[in-house]
């Protein structure tokens, strides 16, 4: 089993979790060399010591815990313990949906944030939404939060750049769209931009044709009941997800 490639800093900061494979070595004590996996409870079974809780500890902290246990147990006077991270399995985050490289990514260091993990996945594709959904567990309870990614940078909402934990999932949904058809230059589906108005929506469709009129519009919008409601919108009205705009012919 090949060791995980990581910098010295990442090695020291990485929090061990269930499923992680490690190799423990004690200088000049080859009989204490052990390759093992962290159990689901976060423990390992180590010679002389029995069960040792390592889950949630950084690699450096785990080394110190074993060092202290060997010393306090009277087994060695000044043990020099090193832990090599062989395979990361427990502390991973899933990135799903409309990203360039969906998959599972390791938390190789502590304090990995949401934007860091999205960057690891290549970011959202052009059809991806600006708002992502983060799910996982916090304090033993299910956790779910919708995060506006542009707002983190545009409005300095750094508190929304969440610190991720092992087992978290990040989901990037398809961007919301509206539809425009009838007497427009380029009928079709388009992304709903922030604070978009009906006038801007028609402009995305290339504007009315020679026979069309921006004064003769019909809007089809699904109500909460599920019924489709028709109306004649103003050019300054906001556009919502799944709106259907129909540009009718001029009456002249």
Automatic annotation (TrEMBL):
One of its GO terms (cellular component) is cell outer membrane. It is found in: Cell outer membrane. Residues 177-228 form the Soluble ligand binding domain. Residues 92-172 form the SLBB domain. The keyword Transport applies. Residues 10-84 form the Polysaccharide export protein N-terminal domain. GO terms for molecular function: polysaccharide transmembrane transporter activity; porin activity. InterPro entries: Poly_export, Poly_export_N, Polysacc_export_EpsE, SLBB_dom, Soluble_ligand-bd. This is Polysaccharide exporter. It comes from Candidatus Symbiobacter mobilis CR.
């Amino acid at each position: 089993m090949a060791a995980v490639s990581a910098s010295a800093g990442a090695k020291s900061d990485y929090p061990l979790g269930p499923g992680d494979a490690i190799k423990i070595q004690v200088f000049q004590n080859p009989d204490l060399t052990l390759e093992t996996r962290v159990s689901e409870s976060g423990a390992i079974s180590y010679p002389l010591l029995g069960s040792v809780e390592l889950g949630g500890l950084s690699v450096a902290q785990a080394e110190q815990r074993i060092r202290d246990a060997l010393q306090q147990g009277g087994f060695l006077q000044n043990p020099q313990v090193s832990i090599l991270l062989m395979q990361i399995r427990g502390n991973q985050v899933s990135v799903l949906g409309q990203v360039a490289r969906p998959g599972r990514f390791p938390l190789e260091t502590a304090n990995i944030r949401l934007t860091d993990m999205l960057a690891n996945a290549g970011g959202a594709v052009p059809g991806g939404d600006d708002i992502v959904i983060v799910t996982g567990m916090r304090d033993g309870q299910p956790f779910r939060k919708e995060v506006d990614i542009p707002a983190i940078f545009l409005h300095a909402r750094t508190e929304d750049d969440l610190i991720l934990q092992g087992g978290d999932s990040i989901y990037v949904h398809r961007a919301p769209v509206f539809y425009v058809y009838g007497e427009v230059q380029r009928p079709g589906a388009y992304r709903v931009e922030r604070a978009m108005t009906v006038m801007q929506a028609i402009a995305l469709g290339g504007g009315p044709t020679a026979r069309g009129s921006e004064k003769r519009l019909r809007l089809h919008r699904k109500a909460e009941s599920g019924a489709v409601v028709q109306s004649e919108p103003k050019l300054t009205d906001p556009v919502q997800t799944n709106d259907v705009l129909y540009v009718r012919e001029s009456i002249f």
